[in-house]
Write a structure and sequence with these properties.
The chain has 854 residues and is of the alpha/beta class. Among the domains are: 200 residues, N6 adenine-specific DNA methyltransferase, N-terminal domain (Ferritin, Up-down Bundle), CATH 1.20.1260.30; 97 residues, no CATH class; 108 residues. The chain is 55% helix and 10% strand. The protein has 37 helices and 16 strands. It has a nine-stranded mixed sheet with strand order 3-2-1-4-5-7-6-8-11, with helices on both faces. The protein has a three-stranded antiparallel sheet with strand order 12-14-13. A two-stranded antiparallel sheet has the order 9-10. Helix 1 packs parallel to helix 10, helix 2 runs parallel beside helix 14 and helix 18 crosses helix 27. The protein is globular. The protein starts with a helix and ends in a 5-residue tail after the last helix. The mean pLDDT is 89.
């Protein structure tokens, strides 16, 4: 039973192993191209099986039947398949025929080339030919490329390995659950991360796509969607994911891509995600040079779409190679032509031109478009005057693999109310660091989208810029002009430094403590002069009083009660998911509900709760619910699979089974909960080993002390580095030493420690092996009650406690501020002066004691 996560991991590991030194941005074309050809072959066989009325049959038998039918029915069979699919793969050119040749030792690279060429010929006469034409052109899949191998044998070996990577995957079955599409999209993203700057040609980071897609999906009635710089198609598909199932069925996709290899990638990606050929119109062309798509009946309007999304290349130089004029209908609204040195507004205006009257457009742009002058300033002013800019969302820097600059998402509409403010969101500080990249967490995306949908103002984060504000800034939309970052640093108080005490104003600024437990805070302070106070007790003691206060305890209990109800509700739902369950909707319901119930409590950041649930899905539920839906909760709980590990390296690298693992119940959790006594005994032995190692370390250090008994007895058995004893030397020296001497006793002690450590280490190894085997076998006989206990801990182990802890976060933050203020002002300038004088006096006294000897 293979899940989407396991497929992703296996394919990416295979890609890393096989591509060698080939550039990731180039290798992706081979890997994803052959993966897609496997899909076409599997679809052909599936359609033949259905139309022929064949029942349960193995793949090899199905291929044989297809070969026979081809001989008997010839072109009639071809036409039938072509009508049903819009294409077909002839029997002799199936992916399965390559596998057969590999297994028989008759494989030749030319067979792959011939197969790809034949597919091109078979679709040439089809009405769907534009959807498949050129997918496997030599410019995309050049199997003679020396990067695949310096000679024919090397290339043949590498291509065979790549073909075998997909051999056991049923692409049709995987497509039905969107598993195949997800795996394809995952590989595109992974290749993007490996490709560095070249990734900008084909990939928009998932988190940026999510921000744009969620906004577009929520704000428009989407039946048609257009991406003028479509790349791999990820933006289109992310929007699709956030639309209802019924809407998805009739959604029409349009896109244009200049790079031919990337254009091919787009079409493959959409088809693998189940987009029907008649619902996708993708063009290989330059978006700016020639307007597309056009409506012949209304040449000055262009085709209009319900949603437009795009991540164009930034600040393209020389974009106007076609010599376009202001008279081009796309640029008329702007009243000026974007400068030839920067194509940002050219892309924006193209997308806006094709936006329907009630549609929503989202575009990623560099910050320069918000403040640059000249023609760009004129265009920005005109767009604001025409009321087209709905929102500007500033994102963190280093989100993209191909640039470290910060970017902004601009939302545009044509149906805004007169004088409606422009919503400015500054999310530039909302991220975590993952390696060299900055990453938006799920909670960051949710906050951006909620703020946009609710058009919410929040100090330091978002602002509704009214017309007068924009005029005062002369149409400069640079985000810091509208959203002032909150300075977290508390200003220094000179009087407090000179005379001591915490400024009363700083105490007043502790809003959560003042609102929640003002009496405890007040009783913990003493006024020392007008406007200044000092602590009557340590902050640690104040913290204990506050956190044990009846009001705080009551609030925590109320949160705990609601958190338990929330967890139990979804615990019952998650255990019974099946093939009819909409897992994406279930995840969304959980995420929305956690925000709703936490919003009832003042001073809790609901997005921290959102992240807790998002992490549970990411770490466990995405994988486990997929398996449960294919089987059932308790059957899955008692199912195990081989634990495959990689051993050896180079030519000797191989996959071997190392025991078994539960497909949803972790072996480690079984050991922890059902074999606690055994674990405790193992832990005691490990602690004894650690104690022996410490004893040996102490003796090593003692052996380094000159003229000591340890140095005399043990100095000669230290290794060259002088960091440990050598076991062989211990035995040799012990034979020479006289019994009863100090030397003999010390050597004997070291020998016994070595023996005890060795015995214990072997015992631990044997015990761990026995426990591992016991846990693996225990999976098969777990009771329903045991599965409930283990899986509840896996999914929701400390969730309730973590959610309850959210109430303490703002209190602890202000208590830390109180500690900081105390530490800052506890030592006044006079105290520091006194310490300085004492040190100076001590130095003078020490100096007078110095004696100069000749």
């Amino acid at each position: 039973m293979i899940t989407s996560e396991e497929i992703k991991r296996r394919l990416w590991d295979g890609a890393n192993e096989l591509r060698g030194s080939m550039d990731a941005s180039r290798y992706k074309d081979y890997m994803l191209g052959l993966m897609f050809y496997k899909f076409l072959s599997d679809k052909t066989l599936e359609e033949f099986k259905i139309s022929s009325g064949l029942g349960q049959i193995t793949e090899s038998e199905l291929v044989e039947e297809y070969v026979k039918a081809k001989v008997e029915y010839g072109e009639e069979l071809d036409r039938m398949l072509q009508m049903a699919l819009g294409y077909y793969v002839a029997p002799e050119y199936l992916y399965q025929s390559w596998l057969k040749d590999i297994n028989s030792g008759n494989f030749e690279v030319q067979k792959v080339t011939d197969s790809l060429n034949n597919f091109e010929r078979t679709i040439a006469v089809s009405s769907d030919s534009n959807d498949f034409k050129g997918l496997f052109s030599s410019s995309t899949l050049d199997l003679t490329d020396t990067a695949l191998g310096s000679n024919l044998n090397e290339r043949s070996k590498n291509i065979k390995s790549l073909i075998l990577l997909f051999a056991d995957l049923n692409m049709v079955a995987l497509q039905k659950g969107d598993v195949l599409g997800d795996a394809y999209e995952y590989l595109i993203g992974q290749f993007a991360m490996e490709s560095g700057k070249k990734a900008g040609e084909f990939y928009t980071p998932h988190q940026v796509s999510e921000v744009m897609a969620q906004i577009v999906a929520k704000m428009s009635d989407v039946k048609t969607i257009y991406d003028p710089t479509v790349g791999s198609g990820s933006l289109l598909l992310t929007v699709k994911k956030h639309l209802g199932k019924e809407v998805q069925k009739d959604l029409s996709y349009y896109g244009q891509e200049k790079n031919t290899a990337t254009y091919n990638l787009t079409r493959m990606n959409l088809l693998l995600h189940g987009v029907r050929p008649e619902k996708m119109t993708i063009k290989n062309g330059d978006t700016l040079s020639h307007d597309w798509p056009e409506d012949p009946e209304r040449p000055n309007e262009g085709v209009q779409f319900d949603a437009v999304v795009m991540n164009p290349p930034y600040s393209v130089k020389g974009w106007n190679k076609a010599g376009l004029k202001i008279s081009d209908p796309r640029f008329e609204i702007a009243g000026a032509l974007p400068p030839d040195s920067k194509g940002d507004f050219a892309f924006l205006l193209h997308g806006l031109f094709h936006l329907g009257q009630n549609g929503t457009m989202a575009i990623v742009l560099p910050h320069g478009v918000l403040f640059r002058g000249g023609a760009e300033g004129e265009i920005r002013e005109r767009l604001l005057e025409k009321n087209r800019i709905d929102s500007i969302i500033g994102l963190p820097s280093s989100l993209f693999t191909n640039t470290g600059i910060p970017v902004a998402v601009m939302i545009l509409k044509k149906s805004r109310k007169i004088d409606e403010p422009v919503l400015i969101i500054d999310a530039s500080r909302s991220f975590i660091k993952v390696g060299k990249q900055n990453v938006l967490q799920e909670k960051d995306i949710a906050k951006i989208v909620d703020t946009y949908v609710e058009r919410r103002e929040e100090k330091g984060y978002s602002c509704l810029a009214k017309r007068k504000d924009i005029l005062e800034n002369q149409y400069n939309m640079n985000i810091p002009r509208y959203v002032e970052a909150i300075d977290e640093e508390i200003p220094q108080d000179v009087d407090a430094h000179l005379l001591g005490g915490i400024p009363q104003q700083n105490i007043e600024d502790l809003k959560v403590l003042q609102s929640t437990v003002p009496d405890i805070l007040d009783q913990s302070l003493k006024g020392i002069r007008n406007g200044y106070v000092e602590l009557l007790k340590p902050v640690e003691e104040i913290s204990k009083e506050i956190l044990s206060d009846a009001r705080i305890v009551a609030k925590s209990k109320e949160i705990e009660s609601k958190a338990k109800s929330y967890v139990y509700k979804y615990w019952d739902i998650l255990r019974v998911v099946d093939n009819n369950s909409n897992l994406n909707q279930l995840m969304d319901d959980m995420l929305v509900e956690i925000k709703t119930f936490l919003a009832e409590f003042k001073y809790i950041d609901v997005y921290n709760g959102y992240q807790i649930v998002a992490e549970i899905w990411k770490n466990s539920l995405v994988h486990d619910t997929e398996i449960i839906a294919l089987s059932d909760f308790y059957t899955a709980g008692r199912t195990r699979e081989p634990n495959m590990v990689t051993k050896g390296s180079g030519d000797k690298k191989r996959e071997e089974q190392d025991g078994w693992v539960g497909i949803i119940v972790p072996n480690e959790l079984i050991a922890k909960r059902l074999y606690s006594d055994e674990l405790e005994r193992i832990e005691k032995k490990k602690m004894r080993i650690l104690g022996i190692e410490n004893e040996l370390s102490d003796l090593v250090e003692a052996a380094k002390v000159e003229d000591s008994d340890e140095a005399d007895a043990l100095g000669g058995i230290l290794n060259e580095a002088g960091e440990a004893f050598e076991n062989k030397s211990v035995k040799a020296e012990l034979k020479k030493a006289s019994k009863g001497t100090v030397e003999y006793k010390l050597l004997k002690n070291v020998e016994e420690l070595f023996t005890d450590k060795s015995t214990l280490s072997k015992a631990v190894k044997a015990d761990e092996k026995a426990l591992k085997e016991a846990a693996q076998e225990r999976i098969l006989t777990l009771t329903n009650e045991e599965i409930d206990i283990l899986m509840y801990e896996k999914w929701f182990g400390n969730t309730v406690e973590t959610i309850v802890g959210l109430a303490e976060l703002p209190l602890n933050a202000e208590l830390n501020t109180l500690q900081l203020l105390h530490d800052r002002y506890v030592e006044t300038l006079s105290v520091l002066d006194e310490e300085s004088r004492d040190l100076e006096a001590a130095f003078v006294a020490l100096k007078s004691e110095l004696v100069v000897r000749s």
